[in-house]
Specification:
Protein name: ABC transporter substrate-binding protein
Helix content: 40-55%
CATH class of the largest domain: Alpha Beta
CATH superfamily of the largest domain: Periplasmic binding protein-like II
CATH architecture of the largest domain: 3-Layer(aba) Sandwich
Signal peptide: 1-23
Number of strands: 10
Distance between the termini: 32 Å
Pfam family, one: NMT1
Radius of gyration: 19 Å
Number of helices: 18
Order of helices and strands: HHEHHEHEHEEHEHEHEHEHEHHHHHHH
CATH topology of the largest domain: D-Maltodextrin-Binding Protein, domain 2
Main location: periplasm
Oligomer: single chain
Shape: globular
Keywords: Signal
Length: 341
């Protein structure tokens, strides 16, 4: 293992040794966190918080359980098998519409970072989403945010989500396998899958939300991405625990914001690097880094963009009528984290 990572582990051990005085103040010293496809750079702040020992520094042990996609991780939290959720902010709005409120308390991604990629054959004659009619489109999991981007793109071109067949292919090596065996003709993914597909000559990006311009083209405004959230009941009952989690995530965001791509890659364990190419990962991070939130705060404009997008492709949100968007998130924990610096 690389020297930098060994040093990080040593720091983690030291942080854990000094944690009891902090941990005794928390309502919960151990929590289970559900995430869908943590290998994606979409969840880099979460992984950095764990790898760099920031959770341990806050006196909290986080058991991270990885699911195939965001929709399944949401089910775990709503069903009670997990306490915390790392997923797209839009789930907070959707669950509010369903009467099962989730509160987002720290934003990790300010742009989705998703890319629609198609096979080179389709790319040669790309004519928008009509080129995918009748074809299999891969997403991390059916019902996930990657799936919803497909829906939004189809509806935006006067097509129906049923005009394509959605296939859950995960977010790791299985994505490359799906293209290699011809299971899908296109996919919406975050990096590293997007860049690895392109480098292998298996796909060509045609729609890109790794930056503000692409995000506004697809969603009509700044669309927030991954966020830390929990049931509103959990947040209300465990404010010190939520604050500890938020402090750790804010530290991770600051590390990402203040570090070069090479410095970020240096702390990642080898198993996080699909293909094991550190130089390739650094190049990916140059593209993806602008998508991460620099401060963890959610803006009203971003929340409104989410709601407006959901009204287009989510029947539950449309049917719910007016939704109290202020109840879907809070910036108070992030503001406190910055105030404590």
């Amino acid at each position: 293992m690389r020297k930098f990572f060994v040093a990080t582990v040593a720091g983690l051990t030291l942080a854990m040794a000094s944690a009891p005085s902090i941990a005794q103040e928390l309502e919960r010293n151990n929590v289970t966190l559900a995430v869908g496809g943590r290998v994606a750079l979409y969840y880099l702040p979460l992984n950095i918080a764990e790898i760099n020992g920031y959770f341990a520094e806050e006196g909290i042990n986080v058991d991270i359980v990885d699911f195939q996609g965001g929709s399944r991780s949401v089910q775990a939290v709503v069903g009670g098998s997990a306490d915390i959720l790392a997923a797209a902010f839009e789930h907070s709005v959707t669950m509010q519409a369903q009467g099962q409120p989730l509160t987002s308390f720290a934003l990790m991604g300010r742009y989705p970072g998703f890319v629609l990629s198609v096979t080179p054959e389709i790319a040669q004659n790309w004519d928008g989403m009509a080129s995918l009619k009748g074809k299999n489109v891969g997403v991390t999991a059916p019902g996930s945010s990657t799936n919803k981007m497909v829906d939004l793109l189809l509806i935006g071109e006067n097509l129906a989500p049923s005009d394509v067949s959605i296939v859950g292919i995960g977010a790791g090596p299985s994505v490359l396998a799906a293209f290699q065996n011809g299971s899908v003709a296109a996919t919406v993914q975050a990096d590293p899958a997007t860049t690895l597909l392109e480098q292998a000559g298996l796909s060509v990006p045609v729609v890109d939300t790794r930056n503000l311009e692409g995000t506004e083209q697809v969603y009509g405004g700044p669309m927030p991405a991954a966020a830390m959230m929990a049931t509103t009941r959990f947040v209300d009952a465990n404010p010190k625990t939520v604050q500890a989690l938020t402090n750790a995530v804010v530290k991770a965001l600051e590390f990402i914001d203040n570090s070069s791509p090479e410095e970020i890659v240096a702390v990642l364990p080898q198993e996080y690097l699909i293909g094991g190419d550190e130089a390739a990962y650094a190049k990916m991070l140059e593209l993806v880094k602008p998508a991460f939130s620099p401060d963890g705060l959610l803006s009203e404009e971003a929340v409104e963009t989410t709601y407006n997008a959901l009204k287009i492709y989510n029947e539950t949100v449309r049917a719910a009528g007016e939704i109290n968007l202020e109840a879907t998130y809070t910036n108070s924990f992030v503001e406190a984290a910055h105030g404590a610096e």
